[in-house]
Every structure is written in C-alpha cells, then in structure tokens.
Amino acid sequence: MNISTSRAEERLVHVPLGERAYDILIGPDMISHAGGEITARLKGRRAAIVTDEHVAPLYLESLMDSLQTDGIEAVSLTLPAGEKTKSLEHLATVCDLALSARIERNDAIIALGGGVIGDLAGFAAGIVRRGVRFVQIPTSLLAQVDSSVGGKTGINTRHGKNLLGVFHQPDLVISDTSALNSLSKREFRAGYAEVAKYGLIDRPDFFEWLEANWQDVFAGGAARTEAIAVSCQAKAEVVVADERENGRRALLNLGHTFGHALEAATQYDSSRLVHGEGVAIGMALAHRFSARLNLASPDDAQRVERHLSAVGLPTKISQIPGELPPTDVLLDAIAQDKKVKSGKLTFILTHGIGQSFIADDVPVSEVKSFLEETRSE
Amino acid sequence: MNISTSRAEERLVHVPLGERAYDILIGPDMISHAGGEITARLKGRRAAIVTDEHVAPLYLESLMDSLQTDGIEAVSLTLPAGEKTKSLEHLATVCDLALSARIERNDAIIALGGGVIGDLAGFAAGIVRRGVRFVQIPTSLLAQVDSSVGGKTGINTRHGKNLLGVFHQPDLVISDTSALNSLSKREFRAGYAEVAKYGLIDRPDFFEWLEANWQDVFAGGAARTEAIAVSCQAKAEVVVADERENGRRALLNLGHTFGHALEAATQYDSSRLVHGEGVAIGMALAHRFSARLNLASPDDAQRVERHLSAVGLPTKISQIPGELPPTDVLLDAIAQDKKVKSGKLTFILTHGIGQSFIADDVPVSEVKSFLEETRSE
C-alpha cells in the first residue's frame, strides 16, 4: 500500500539517515490506524507505550485498540504531565516497564504525547538492551515539528535541562494532525513559533506562505498538514547534513539562545513563558540584533515581528509578565547555555528572512548593550 | 612523537571505526604517563576519573599526578568494587560527578579499573551531554583484551545483566601491562580464557603460539604485551566489521552461551565461578558439542581442553564446586540468554581450532542430551 496516494490528506516525509532512515506520516486520524503502519515497518510484535495523564484519556484507548487489531501485544504507562517527568526516576520506571514486558531489540517503545514524553521514552528506547525500536506519536504541534525529528532524547538533572540523553533516531513517526484540535490556542501558537522558524532559517518562500495562510494552519485541514510536512522536511534536511550536531545543525537554534535565557530568567514558569514563546521573542531579538549589527535590513526584523504578533505570539521581552532579573544575569544565562564553546558567544544571526547563519564570535559587549536597550522596549 | 617506536616494549593497536576511530596503547608503566597520551589526542582539559576501592590505592595517585603534570584538571570518584556497582544508582552518581565538574563534550570521563568500572563509566560518558569523551585505563587482563574494545557499556537491573546501556566507543585505551602484576593468579587466568578465545575463533596460529608461550604471557614482559595486542587486534577486526552486533560479532560469544548459563546457575557467586572460568568451560563444551555433532574432530576438542587445563582453567561442569540445578534449569538459562532470537537456539560452534561459526538452528533436544551426558563427566 502506498500511503501517500491512498489517503488524500496524508503526507509522508522520508528522513534519509542511511541505516537509521525512517518515515514521518502526517495526516488526520492517524492514531486509529497506527497498528497497521507499525506492523508494516517493524518486525517485533510487542510494544510498551509511554504517555501522560493529559493525553491518555484522549488517545490511549484508540491506540491500544489499533495495536491489538494488528496483533501487537502492548502494555502502557501513564506518567504525570509536565517537564518534571523528564527525571532519572521516571526513566528508570520506563526502562523497568519495557524489560518486564520483554521488549527486545525489534520491539518498540512508543511515545504517545508531547516533547516531554518523547524525550523520556526515546532515551529509554536508546538504552534498553543498548537500543530497541522507537515509535513517536507526537500529540503537540511543537513535538510534531521539532522534537520528533532529529533523534535527540534526554532528561533533566539538578544541573540543568537535557543534560543526560542519547541520540536515538525513531523508526517511525506518526503525526496525527487531528490530535492538535485538543490543544489550547496558547499551546498551538507556541508550536507555531517553531514552524515559522524553518521559514526564517532558510525558506523565505515558506515564510511568505505562512504569512498568507497561517489562519488555515490554525484551523486544521490541508494547510496544517502542509505546514507540518514542510517543517519536518526542513528539520530533516538539517539533521541529515549534521546528525551529531557539530556544525550546520546549530541553525536550528535560531531564537533559542535568547529564548533559553528568558526561560531560565522566568524559572521555567510556564504561566509566564512557554518554550515556543521564548523562541518567538528570541527570533524577533535575533533579527533586531542582526539589523543593529548592520547585517540585515530593519525592514525584515519588522516583518518578522508583524507576523509573530499577528498569530498572537510575543516578540518583546517586556511582554513577559512579572519581574525579570538584571541584564547581567540574563547574559550569564546566555553564556552558560550549552551552545557556548570555550567562552565565545555563539549566536544564530541573519542577513534577512530565510538567510540565517552561525556567528561564533559575537562580542559580549554588543549583546549587553542590545539587551539593555531592548528589554525596556 | 611516534609511540610505537620510541618505547621498545609498547604496542599500538588502531581501531579504524571512521569518525569513531581510536588507539589502544599497550605496554608497561603506561599509567604514569597517561596525561601526555591524553593531551596528545583530546582537546578538553578536564577529566572525571571513576575507579574502585581495590584499584584506587594502587594507581589513582600516579594517574592524578600524570594528569596534573600535563595540565588536565581532574576529579575522581572511588566506588565499591564488584558487579553490584553496575547499578542505576551508581550511574547517577557518576553522571552527577561529571556534570558538577563541568565536563563538556571534549572533556573526558576516565575509567580506571576492570570491566565493571569500564562498563559503568562508559555508559555515563555515553549519556552525559549526549556523549562526552571516554578514556579507558583497564587494570585487569579481562578488561584489557575484552571489555575495553567494542564500545559496549552497561549496567544491570533486577531483570538481568547489562540490560541498560549504550554503544559508546572510547577515544583512547591505555592498557598498562604492569598493572596486571597485582592481579591474583585466578584473575589473570580468567582473563586468559578470553585471550585463548581469539585463537579459537579464527586465529589457529595464535592458539598454537599460546600453547608454546603461555608461561611467558603469565610472567609478563614482551610476550604479555604481544598476547594483549593480538587479542585487541582480533576483537577490533570483528567489531569494525559489525559495530552494532547484527551478525559476525556474535563469534565473540564463543563459549559464552554455556558460560553465561553456568554463571547464572551459580548465582554469579565468584567464589564458585568467575566469568572467565565459565567461558573456559563453555569453550571446551562448544568444541566437544561440535565434535558430537560431527562438525569437528574430537582431537581438536581434546587439544583445547589440554591447553586450558595446562594454564589451570576448568574445562568440565563437574569442576564447579557445589550443587548445580537440574539440566532443564540450565537449558532455560540458555534459552533466556539474550543471544536467543525468536525461540531458536543460537550457538557458536566450530569446524576445528580457529574455525568457529554461527549456528542459529541448534535443536534443543541435542543440547539437552549433550548436557545430561557432559555434566557428570
């Protein structure tokens, strides 16, 4: 069966990573026929599903039914929702589940949920028996366009986020676009920031398309599927060129150096700022900063802000509710971000819409005076 | 500086794994100049050393001095000796040490000890920041010829041995042959079983050389260095051909299917049986079993037994002190060994000395009657 032609609204993005190549299936109501997609690609007939208490009531039964119909024996584990679940303790629980269920190398751990569940379950899949099969069923827009492509997995420690993990590519990603209907508008917008990012990195036409069609993407249907497929394709191309993150992959951090510092400055309090909002502000700042350094036209920076504002995303530091720490503390957070190498500040800057590049020698003094100026705007 | 020519008794084995290629340095008193070897190859100038309470009093100070002399800032962690240290709890402690010491991707975790320390520290090196540099300084013969080559790392869980781990190749292995002088004769012999294994797999000339020179290998000096270098070379060739253990690498399990079952049957009680002794008995059984199946000449099986007995290794199940469980329980242990795929029994069998091969359809009934017969001999 050729999936891409048999169901009109479905899209297939192939990620050509040699012996780690895999497919991303994107379309409506995919969860209800996940079993068939898995048996068509994986040899094992056992699975351990990891999900969270928000997602389980919505989709777990449908997934279990589909697996059973196709002869896959599955167990499931429902964890608390939220970033704190990315802990060593929960990792141990997932591994124990998989080993108790006798998951072997050809069997799968299935992540049903957002980025937190994907990062945790993917890490477990990377270490159980030194690597078992991994199927991602991302249920947030952020996870569908970002964390489900690229093979990064991880948990947090007392030292910071994602400090323990492995690179472990999924064997299949099933992105059910209907599942996004249950997201709050704020969650959807936060994921959309990453969609816009792919346009800003190196796809000016896609950014223009988003400016014209973003309302359809939010509404669902073919435009949503298209936006997710282009995003996955864009991320896949970068990952294929640089699987282990030594070079070009850093472009994916557009907006993230400022964004992470702002997330840290709000103590990761999601009532004040979620990741995608930090990235939206970070992308706006990266474009303004590039204009200030005479690398890009101020018109492009304004165009970015206009679009992000139109969809309802923040673009200025001052839009973050509550007090923020002094600029020196923000600078420290930027310097401690793991993208810093040997003390130099690395930023993703831009020559304009869709023309971003890696700058690895940005003077701290420039960043400081820019932050001083921009935070009060 | 070309190491292999500047110091007469040193040998260098290169493991050509593409961008994961690394060197194994073998020779006397290597620990005391480890710092220079590390700075010659690694960019980072920080290190976290993991060792155990048996090894620390002997070599930790010498290693720390050498690192300091060469400008490497090092912290160390001394763990309890023994298999129980391969736990999730100790893994967490090692990762915490590395993160507290601000080990970054180019810095190293150094394993100073035997296989337990290497497996644990290597696992940590594979997951801290999704992979930092890893230097092995194996201090047992078993670790020098087996676990330090191949990139397998891992810990044990309540379900069994090595069930969690990653493939993470070292960046450098420093095998100090003088360190083996502190091993008990029993420990040395157990490591020697793996040396002999490489001859039996596919190097008949090496096996013949060992028959003539084993006493010099035990005594130390050039023959010991030679035996370790040939063993590393042999294992490296198999690993390079099959890094992720999908095919040919299974040859390294010669003697291990029977051996693991016997280890399990003695509840891993090292006063009764250590791993190398299990492997020695397992190799003798694999040769006898092959002769019984008319695959090899009984003369070869006798020759294997004669050599292993000469060095003081056991070759018969009846040499294991204490009661053993019934044959059915041994068979169950063989069937649960992770080399079993979909219920078929996979064994490494042989057509003679140095002519081993993978047999993946060995009838359970044949194994059972062979075990019944052989256990009383």
From TrEMBL, chains A, B:
<dbReference type="GO" id="GO:0003856">
    <property type="term" value="F:3-dehydroquinate synthase activity"/>
</dbReference>
<keyword id="KW-0456">Lyase</keyword>
<dbReference type="Pfam" id="PF24621">
    <property type="entry name" value="DHQS_C"/>
</dbReference>
<keyword id="KW-0520">NAD</keyword>
<feature type="binding site">
    <location>
        <position position="256"/>
    </location>
    <ligand>
        <name>Zn(2+)</name>
    </ligand>
</feature>
<dbReference type="InterPro" id="IPR030960">
    <property type="entry name" value="DHQS/DOIS_N"/>
</dbReference>
<dbReference type="InterPro" id="IPR030963">
    <property type="entry name" value="DHQ_synth_fam"/>
</dbReference>
<feature type="binding site">
    <location>
        <position position="152"/>
    </location>
    <ligand>
        <name>NAD(+)</name>
    </ligand>
</feature>
<feature type="binding site">
    <location>
        <begin position="139"/>
        <end position="140"/>
    </location>
    <ligand>
        <name>NAD(+)</name>
    </ligand>
</feature>
<keyword id="KW-0028">Amino-acid biosynthesis</keyword>
<dbReference type="Pfam" id="PF01761">
    <property type="entry name" value="DHQ_synthase"/>
</dbReference>
<keyword id="KW-0170">Cobalt</keyword>
<feature type="binding site">
    <location>
        <position position="275"/>
    </location>
    <ligand>
        <name>Zn(2+)</name>
    </ligand>
</feature>
<feature type="binding site">
    <location>
        <position position="194"/>
    </location>
    <ligand>
        <name>Zn(2+)</name>
    </ligand>
</feature>
<feature type="binding site">
    <location>
        <begin position="115"/>
        <end position="119"/>
    </location>
    <ligand>
        <name>NAD(+)</name>
    </ligand>
</feature>
<comment type="similarity">
    <text>Belongs to the sugar phosphate cyclases superfamily. Dehydroquinate synthase family.</text>
</comment>
<protein>
    <recommendedName>
        <fullName>3-dehydroquinate synthase</fullName>
        <ecNumber>4.2.3.4</ecNumber>
    </recommendedName>
</protein>
<keyword id="KW-0862">Zinc</keyword>
<dbReference type="InterPro" id="IPR050071">
    <property type="entry name" value="Dehydroquinate_synthase"/>
</dbReference>
<feature type="domain" description="3-dehydroquinate synthase N-terminal">
    <location>
        <begin position="77"/>
        <end position="189"/>
    </location>
</feature>
<feature type="binding site">
    <location>
        <position position="161"/>
    </location>
    <ligand>
        <name>NAD(+)</name>
    </ligand>
</feature>
<keyword id="KW-0479">Metal-binding</keyword>
<keyword id="KW-0963">Cytoplasm</keyword>
<dbReference type="InterPro" id="IPR056179">
    <property type="entry name" value="DHQS_C"/>
</dbReference>
<feature type="domain" description="3-dehydroquinate synthase C-terminal">
    <location>
        <begin position="191"/>
        <end position="340"/>
    </location>
</feature>
<keyword id="KW-0547">Nucleotide-binding</keyword>
<dbReference type="InterPro" id="IPR016037">
    <property type="entry name" value="DHQ_synth_AroB"/>
</dbReference>
<comment type="pathway">
    <text>Metabolic intermediate biosynthesis; chorismate biosynthesis; chorismate from D-erythrose 4-phosphate and phosphoenolpyruvate: step 2/7.</text>
</comment>
<comment type="function">
    <text>Catalyzes the conversion of 3-deoxy-D-arabino-heptulosonate 7-phosphate (DAHP) to dehydroquinate (DHQ).</text>
</comment>
<keyword id="KW-0057">Aromatic amino acid biosynthesis</keyword>
